[in-house]
Amino acid sequence: MNENKQIFSKIGFNYLLLALIPILFQIIFVNAISLIDFNLIKNTNIQILVSSLTNYILVLPIFIYLMRKIKSVTIDKNGIKITQLLKYICIAIVFMMIGNLVGNIITTFIGNMMTNDVINPIEQLIENSNIYINLLIISILAPIFEELFFRKLLIDRTIRYGAKLSILLSAFMFAIFHGNLSQFFYAFLLGGLFAYIYIETGKIIYPIVIHACVNFYGSVASLIFNSATTNIAQGAGMANIADIGIIAIYMIVLIAALFIGLYEIFAKYNKIDLNDSKKEVYLEKPLQTVFVNVGMICFILYHIVTILISLNIIHI
Fold first, then answer.
1. How much is the pLDDT for 44?
2. If you write DSSP's letter for every residue of the chain in order, what string do you get?
């Protein structure tokens, strides 16, 4: 195995450990909680808090230690205007809608073929958890840690192979890491966008902010919107004025974001200039070098099995 394949193999194994180490932590926490009160384990909010603690906070220092063994490159810092940031948020919402639509169509098709429903884990999680938990975990913590894991720590170590390769790898690993088809497609599109923004700016804060806005829209804002529509369906008269206002604001923001996002995508997609100034290594067979190695194969196979389990194709 040549030097470059070894680097990507090491990256693959590191991200496999990023998936496996939290499972060990979760086993420890679940057993400890069960000793206190077994019913606490069944509480969705407790499950989310334990998952966040193990998947993000506890594993971060371990993962940083592993990734620091791989050479990194500092990306030049560039600021962007607030108007451009808002445009990126609109593009992200469009990508989320498109990816979510594709994911739902494919999972519904698979579910019909198998004559059973394929559960969307993120929708189930959002609907069954407290809105404040969604705000804290999904809208704040998840964007911070996921951007550190899949943009900052990954791209700093792959940008020397070129922006295109770095963006593709970041998007793919971010998507497949979710472990289900429902999220794979929009996570791939968003992961690519966040990677592009990080490479263009060199500042991880921008992808974090955009990621947070998208997650807020998909979790907290959508819950408030659904609650308002339910109230209107069940109520009548003046009591629903606030709910009507919530629905109106939600729809206005959504429609405006879709129009702006689509315009930015179709009007400027051919003007995108990927910053390859940091490219130091030219790979003769880039995809083979990146993906056909022991570490990456193990990482991909593990998550394929996870996806098949989520589709009820494999039973455990």
1. 78
2. --HHHHHHHHHHHHHHHHHHHHHHHHHHHHHHHHHH-GGGGG-HHHHHHHHHIIIIITHHHHHHHHHTTS---PPPP----HHHHHHHHHHHHHHHHHHHHHHHHHHHHHHHHTTS----HHHHHHHHS-HHHIIIIIIIIHHHHHHIIIIIHHHTTTGGG-HHHHHHHHHHHHHHHT-SHHHHHHHHHHHHHHHHHHHHH--THHHHHHHHHHHHIIIIIHHHHHHHHHHHHH--GGGGHHHHHHHHHHHHHHHHHHHHHHHHHHHHGGG-----TT-----SSHHHHHHSSHHHHHHHHHHHHHHHHHTTSS--
